[in-house]
Amino acid sequence: MSDDLTTLELRSTATGAGRLELALVDVPVAAPGDGEIVVRVEATPINPSDLGLLLGPADMATLETGGTADRPTLSAAIPPRAMAGVKSRLDESMPVGNEGGGTVIAAGPGAEAMIGKRVGMMGGGMYTRLRKLRAADVMPLPEGASAADGASMFVNPLTALAFVETMKAEGHKAIVHTAAASNLGQMLNRICLMDGVPLICVVRSEAQAAILREQGATHIVDSSTPDFQDRLTDAIAETGATLAFDAIGGGNQAARILQAMETAASRNAATYSRYGSDTFKQVYIYGGLDLSPTVLDRWVGFSWALGGWLLTPFLVKAGRDTGARLRQRVADELTTTFASRYTKTISLAEALDSDTVRAYQRKATGEKFLIDPTL
């Protein structure tokens, strides 16, 4: 493999002039060194976690197109109030894409046995045709698994498994999960059914409830119905859930969950306490489907916590053995428990089509885009 090989890569730049610029650029790929491999990327998903880097805080109403059919560009205005949040990345052309799947096409000394193998990988910069990594950082896919099967084997599966690990480590016995009909939410439902973990699935429509009902979910509450708070409280009282993972972030969803937990905990209180119940309640915000401020109504007693949750810090804290165990389970159940379904496969160029950007930027339930850089 020659040192002057190049790959086509999607880059995102936030400029000091207050613009977000997206483009496809040629990037050199050096020959793999000891223990390194080069993977032809054949599938890489657009996850909500990718959009923060890809689109940042840009105003989608100001999208402007440019470039050519095979090398399109997009730009949009970054609102002045949001510039402070991107200060550390100003004028830096940044690769995008957390995870992917593909075939090893070259290897350095010590990794030659990997050539020709199909692998799943995580490490950023996956919206590209070629990606160089350490062989130790990829996972060979099971026999018969496609690159698309392996493309989403890290972020959502490990997050769903880590929710259950967090529940056990912190002494809870049931989970409340919002945006529960998402790809990740469906995985979590399958894990909890298999592992016997009570799960309360919070959705926003009957159509989303039907998806989970079909998959065997036993506790589903629809936040769009007038009796949502009562039904959520009843489900929490039945399961004993004192832990929630919230994908929405903005608005009062986290507060409503804490309120329901407090009401459920106080139902059988023998005496009144001005401080509320002593049952500890924890809500973790792990997503940003709603970017508005998080609103917290304090009628939840004093024994509670609201915090953020991220996968990478969890894995670091959990340790190498736990991480390896979780990854092995994903590999073993890749096409069952952790199967991902995509509604549309697009090329790198199509990922910069303005209408397509608006579609995947909506992060709508049931819509998941997959990029195939070989197209």
Describe this structure as you would to a colleague.
The structure is a single chain. With 375 residues, this protein is α/β, with parallel strands linked by helices. It has helices at 48-54, 147-151, 155-169, 183-195, 206-214, 228-239, 253-266, 311-318, 320-332, 354-361; strands at residues 5-14, 19-29, 36-45, 64-67, 72-77, 94-95, 99-107, 118-122, 130-134, 138-140, 175-177, 199-203, 219-222, 243-246, 249-251, 281-285, 290-294, 304-308, 344-346, 369-371. Strands 3, 7, 8, 9, 10, 19 and 20 form a 7-stranded mixed beta sheet that branches. Strands 13-12-11-14-16-18 form a 6-stranded parallel beta sheet, sandwiched between helices. The chain has a 5-stranded antiparallel beta sheet with strand order 4-5-2-1-6, with no helix packed on it. Helix 5 (206-214) links the parallel strand 12 (199-203) and strand 13. Helix 3 (155-169) packs across helix 4 and helix 6 (228-239) crosses helix 7. The chain folds into 2 domains: 5-152 and 340-371, Medium-chain alcohol dehydrogenases, catalytic domain (Quinone Oxidoreductase, Chain A, domain 1), CATH 3.90.180; 155-315, Rossmann fold, CATH 3.40.50.
Shape: globular
| Helix count, DSSP H or I runs of 4 or more residues | 10
CATH superfamily of the largest domain, called what? Answer: Medium-chain alcohol dehydrogenases, catalytic domain
Distance between the termini: 22 Å
